[in-house]
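Async update (no meeting this week)

Hi team, since we skipped the sync, here's where things stand on the single-chain job. The sequence we agreed to prioritize is pasted below, unchanged from the tracker. I ran it this morning and attached the output directly underneath so nobody has to dig for it. Comments welcome in thread, and please keep replies under the output.
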Amino acid sequence: MINIEHLRMLNETEIIYNKKQKLDYQKNEIIEKLLADEAVFFKIPKEDAYLVLKKLGIPEDQLYINYISLISYDEYQRLIKSNKLTKEETILDIDNLYNTDVFRNKQTKVNDIALVPVKNKETIYEKILKIFRKLMKKRINRKRLDY
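Output:
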């Protein structure tokens, strides 16, 4: 499974490549800011986490399994013990999260990601993610115009 360090390396590689090719790397700079926090996937909505993973080249059919590994119980405990995350900082409903079928049953399906409970809470990443979403939308609209 992928971890935060892998994602940082993928992003850094993309930035270097895009700079050399004189391509836009603004989205990657935003991702770099997000990934500076090891606990970021506990602090952003799963939809935004999927956007980040997609941008970094994670195949659609592997988004679910990689997201689940990034928010695993072991990862949560590691971040808590190293004081890189507090229960209050996470938007995930930790009290119920690890009791769901997503984590108990290894046979869950991709669509079961909707079972991950989330608190109704705005995070400090909202501003960064709004910019990222706008950039992703522009990219999608630009692709449509190219056809």
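Quick observations from my side:
Confidence is low (pLDDT under 50) at residues 106-115.
Residues 126-146 form the longest helix (21 residues).
Reply here if anything looks off.
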